[in-house]
C-alpha cells in the first residue's frame, strides 16, 4: 500500500528523534573511553572567525629587591599573557534512502499533488519504514562515533578539514621546534607536555619497572595546577601493569574468595587513584604499548552554541527520488595547559 511523501517524512523524523535521543550511546560496538570522556567535558563557545582562543601564561616578570633609606628601586611591567588558538571545524555525517529501496521492501511512495487522496498506510508499512530507517540510523550513529573518536585521537594531518586531536598537542618529543596552538614549545619550556616513549621494562615484572617510573612521573604531572587525570592505554601497556601486580602477589581478599571460587582476574588497574582504561583505538592505531595520561581540566572539546549534533532533514531534490537525513557538529579540541598531561610508551 502506498504512503505519501508527508507520511514518509514524519516516520523518518520520528524514528530519528527516538534513536538519536535515546539510543546513540548504546550503539558503540567497541569501547571508546576517550570519546565518552570528551562528550561529558564538552563546553560551548559563541563563535569566531577561524579559531578558538585560549589565554595562557607561563612566565613571570615581577621580582623583589632589598632597599634601605633612599635607595632607588625599580618597577617591572609584566606582559606575559600569550594566546593559544585552535581551529574549529564543521563535521557532517548523513544517510540516504532511495525510493527503490522502499519498493524492494514493499513500500510505494506517492509525492504528487494528489497524494492527499491516497489511503493511509497500514501498520505494517509504518513498522517496516521504522525498521529500515533504524538500521540506517544505527549505521550513521556508530559510523559518526567511530570517526569522531579517531579524529579526537589523531593530529589532524590525515585531513585538513577535520579537528586536530590529542596527538596534535601531546607530542612524543615536546622539546622539538614545533608550534603548538601558535606557541613555540622549543622556546617556551612551560608549554610542553610530559613524555617518555622508551620506558625500559626489561628488568622483569617482579622489579616493577613501570610502577617505579609512574611513581616519579605522577609527581611531575601534579607539579602544576590541580589536574583531573584520566589514563587511556593500549593492551600491552595494561598487561605490563597487570604482570607487575601478579608478580608481587597483589590479590585482594575478594579476588581469592568469592562464594567458594577463586577469581584470578584483575578487574581494572589504578595508579595514584587514576584508573588506567583500556582504549581499543590505541591498539587499532598500532599503539598497544602506549598510554596517554590526560588532564581533563585542560584538554576538552568546545562546540559552537547550537551546533552540537544538529539534525538536518534536507528536502528531496527534484531530480532524485531519495530521502536524506544528517547531523552536523561544529567545534574544536582545545588544550589550556600541556605540562599536566603526558604520553608514555614501553621500550
Strand arrangement in the largest pleated sheet: 9-17-13-10-12-11
Largest sheet: 6 strands, mixed
Task: State the total count of DSSP E strands.
Answer: 17
Number of helices: 8
Order of helices and strands: EHHEEEEHEHEEEHEHHEEHEEEEE
Average pLDDT over all residues: 87
What percent strand? 25-35%
* Helical content band: 25-40%
Query: Roughly how many Å apart are the termini?
Result: 66 Å
State the low-pLDDT regions, or none: 113-121
| Structural class by secondary-structure content | alpha/beta
Nearest-angstrom radius of gyration? 27 Å
The rough form would be described as flat
Describe this structure in words.
The chain is an alpha/beta fold and 347 residues long. The chain is built from eight helices and 17 strands. It has helices at residues 5-22, 33-41, 99-104, 123-153, 209-221, 235-247, 253-256, 280-284, and strands at residues 2-4, 43-45, 51-57, 81-87, 89-98, 108-110, 179-180, 183-184, 194-199, 229-233, 269-271, 274-278, 290-295, 299-304, 310-312, 322-335, 342-346. The strands form five sheets. Strands 9-17-13-10-12-11 form a six-stranded mixed β-sheet, with helices on one face. Strands 2, 5, 14, 15 and 16 form a five-stranded mixed β-sheet that branches.
Task: Write a short abstract of this structure.
The protein has 8 helices and 17 strands.
Identify the notable features of this structure and list them briefly.
single chain, 347 residues, alpha/beta, 5-stranded mixed β-sheet, 6-stranded mixed β-sheet
Task: Give the topology, please.
Elements (H helix, E strand, L loop, with lengths): L1 E3 H18 L10 H9 L1 E3 L5 E7 L23 E7 L1 E10 H6 L3 E3 L12 H31 L25 E2 L2 E2 L9 E6 L9 H13 L7 E5 L1 H13 L5 H4 L12 E3 L2 E5 L1 H5 L5 E6 L3 E6 L5 E3 L9 E14 L6 E5 L1
Parallel strand pairs: 1-6, 2-14, 9-17, 10-12
Antiparallel strand pairs: 3-4, 5-16, 7-8, 10-13, 11-12, 13-17, 14-16, 15-16
